Amino acid sequence: MYNPRFEKEAFKKDVTNNIKTLFRKELHEANLQELYQAVSYAVKEAIIDDWIETQKKIDKEDPKIVYYMSMEFLMGRALGNNLINMTAYKEVKEALDELGIDLNMVEDQEPDPALGNGGLGRLAACFLDSLATLGYAAYGCGIRYRYGMFKQKIKDGYQVEKPDNWLKYGNPFELRRPEYAKEIRFGGNIRVEYDDTTGKTLFKQENYESVLAVPYDYPIVGYGNGQVNTLRIWDAEPIVDFQLESFERGDYHKAVEQQNLAKTIVEVLYPNDNHYAGKELRLKQQYFFVSASLQLAVDKYMKSHDDIHKLYEKATFQMNDTHPTVAVAELMRILLDDYQLEWNEAWEITTKACAYTNHTIMAEALEKWPIDLFSRLLPRVYQIIQEIDRRFLIKVREMYPGNEEKVKKMAILRDGQVKMAHLAIVAGYSVNGVARLHTEILKKRELRDFYEMMPEKFNNKTNGITQRRFLMHGNPLLADWVTEKLGTKDWITDLSLMSGLKKYAEDDVARAEFMEIKFKNKERLAKYILEHNGIEVDPRSIFDVQVKRLHEYKRQLLNILHVMYLYNQIKQHPEKSFYPRTFIFGAKASAGYVRAKEIIKLINSVAEVVNNDRSINGKLKVVFIEDYRVSNAEMIFAAADVSEQISTASKEASGTGNMKFMLNGAPTLGTMDGANVEIVEEVGRENAFIFGLSSDEVMNYEKHGGYDPYEIYNNDPDVRRVVDQLVDGTYADGDTERYRDLYNCLLKSTPYDKADMYFILKDFRSYADAQEQVEKAYRNKDGWAKMALLNTACCGKFSSDRTIQEYVDDIWKL
Ligand SMILES: *Cc1c(COP(=O)(O)O)cnc(C)c1O
C-alpha cells in the first residue's frame, strides 16, 4: 500500500536535522545509537498527527473505550513495527539506504522494552496491535518499570541475571504526561465520619503514605488505517508538595519515605511466570497502576458526560489475569467515596464494567494475598472487599441452603486470605479462558462451583498473535512470498485468507520456493548462533526449537533427556543412518527458581559434551540461545523446522509461541494441550506430531495421587540410562551430585511433590516415537515441504485480530 503520509526527501532531511539538533553532529559523524534516536524521532513526528487525530475522533464520536489492564506488556522493539504499521517500512529502508544507513543495523540499536515475562505480556502487546488495526478505541494500562525483564547471560553454563536498564538512552517514542498525574495512597487508617447535612457516612483515609503516579504514553499504530491508540504506563514520583511541607515541619523521615516509596514501587518487574510469590511490593505495584488508570478513566468519562451511572456504556476494563483485580474494589471505592453513590448503584456500574481473563489453572500461580498484609496496605479497599464477600455469601447460601461446603470453597475471604480469582469472578461480567480446552477445564473442574452458579459469565477466547510482527517483520521473505502467491496484501489484516495457500502444497515450484525461504532464514539464524554462541550449525540439519519461559510444566527436561537418549543411540549405533539435527533452546528462568536453573545448566552441559564430540560427525548439535526475547524470537520462529510444544497436558492454558511457529511454517511436535488442540484441528493431525497423555489422563492420575515412575525406570532401559546419566557424572565432569535434584524429582516423592509430577518419564517413550516420526517425515523432502506449507496456510484462526473481534462481539460489545 502506498503511504500518502510518507515523503522520502522530507524524511531524509528530518533525520539529518535530528542528528544536528540532538547531538550537534553531521550525519556522517553519528554512531548507530544516535542514528537510531534520530530515525525514531523522525518516525515519531510522522506518527504524531495521526495520534492527535485519533484522540480528536474518539472525543467526537464518543465510542466505548477498552482499558486493557495488565501488569505486563511485552512489546518488543517499536521502530520496525511502527514503520510496518505505517506501511512505510520499505520506503524508509530506501531513504536510509540513500543516506548510507542500514535500517536493520539501526533497528538493532533499540533495546527490547521487556516489560513482561512471557506469553501473558506478549498477548497484551498483540492485543494492542490488533485493537488499533481494527480501529477500536483502546488504552493499554500498565507500569513503566525502570528495569524490565533481566538480561540473561550464560556463564559456565549457568544463568546469570543482569539488570535491564532499557531507558538508559531515553525512549524516543514515549511522551510524559504530567498533567494527568494522580495521587495514590497506601496504608494508614480509615476514619468514619457522619455528614449531618447530607446524611452520608464518609470514609477518610488518614496517616497514609502516598506517591504521585505520572503516566507515559506510547503510540500504538494500527496497520494502514491512521489509527494510533495509546499504551499508558505509569511511573512513580515523590509528591513534591508533601516533601517540602515535611521538610519544613522537620519531618525528614516522611520526606525520605515518600522518595523511597516512589523509587521502589516501579523499580523492577517481578520475573515470575505462572508463579505467585506474595510479595508486598508486588501488591503495591498492582494497586498503584490500577488506581491511577481507573481515576483517569473516570475523569475522562466525566469530562464529557454528566451521569456516572452510565460509565459502563463508555468504558470497559479487561483484567489480564488476576493481577489487576484490585480494580473492582478500587472502582467501587471511587464510586462510593468520591462520587458518593449508594452500594447498589456502585455495584451495578462495577459489575457491568469489569471483565476477567483467566490464564492458568495451576495452583502455585493463583494469587491469594494474606489478609493482614492486604488490609494494612489497602485498608479502605479491604473494607469494600469484605462487603462484597458478605453480600456474595448471602447469595451462595440462598442458592445452596445448608451447604456450608460451598461457602467455604467459594468465599473471597477465607483461611486468612483474599482470593483474587474469586473476587474477579464475583465482580466481573465476563470470565474467559484462553483456549477451548482451558475453558472447558475451568468450567468442569477448577471453577466448577462458579460456573454452576453463573454460567452466563463464562466464555472462551482462544488466544492469537499478530501477523504484522511475527510474519511481516520477522520473516519478510515469507511475507512477500505470501503476498505474491495470494495476489493481495489483504492477509495482513485478514489472516483467514492464508487458506488460499493450501493449493500450493501440491505445486512443486511453490514448495521449492517455500523451502528455499526457510533455508535462508535458517542461514540467518545459523549466522546469529555462530556470532553469539561460537557454535557452527548446519542449516541443512533439522532445526528443532523449544523457546519459551523455563518451567517444569513446559518440560524442557523431557526435551534434553531425549537429546541425551539420541546421543546414546548415535554412539551405540554409529553405523545407523541418522538425520543431522540441531536442538535449539531459549528460555529465561525466574531468578529464584532453582530447579529451572538446574535445567538450563543441564542443557548447556549436554551441549558442551555433544557439540565437542568429533566422533559423531556433527550429527547432533545443541544450542542454548542467550537472552530469549521478542527481538531474537522473531528470527528464531522464521528459522524453525519443528515447534516443540510439549507441556504436560492440561497445564498450558493456551500457548502463543505454538501459533508463531505455525505461521512461519513449522509443524508442531506436541501434546494435546492448550491451543495445540485447535492447531491440530485446523491443520489436520497428519500435519503435526502428537504424543503423550491426554489432559483427562493426566488429571485422572493426579486425582489418584500420581503414578509410579519406577514402573518405567525399571522396564525401559533407554529411559533408565538417561536418568542414571544425571547422577553418574557424564554431564558434570564426574560430579555425581550436580543433577541429583533433577534425578530425585523424576523418581522420588517428597512431602510436597509427587515423583515426576509432570509425567516426563511417563511420556518419554511416546515422545521419542514422535521424534522418530519427525525424522522420517523430514527425510521425505516433498512431504515435509507440503506439511510445513500447510501449517502456514492453515494458521488463519490464530491471528489476534480474530481474537480481538471475538472480545469485541461477545464481551465488550463496542
Ligand atoms: C510468544 C512469546 C512467549 C510465549 O511463548 P509460549 O511458548 O506460548 O510460552 C514468550 N516469550 C516471548 C519472547 C514470546 O514472543
TrEMBL record:
* One biological process term in Gene Ontology: glycogen catabolic process
Name the cofactor(s) required for activity, per the record. pyridoxal 5'-phosphate
Q: Where in the cell is it found?
A: Cytoplasm
Instruction: Check the record and name the InterPro entries matching this protein.
Output: Glycg_phsphrylas, Glyco_trans_35, Pyridoxal_P_attach_site
**Can you name a GO cellular component term?**
cytoplasm
Q: What's its catalytic activity? A: [(1->4)-alpha-D-glucosyl](n) + phosphate = [(1->4)-alpha-D-glucosyl](n-1) + alpha-D-glucose 1-phosphate
Q: What class of enzyme is it?
A: transferase
Put simply, this protein is called Alpha-1,4 glucan phosphorylase
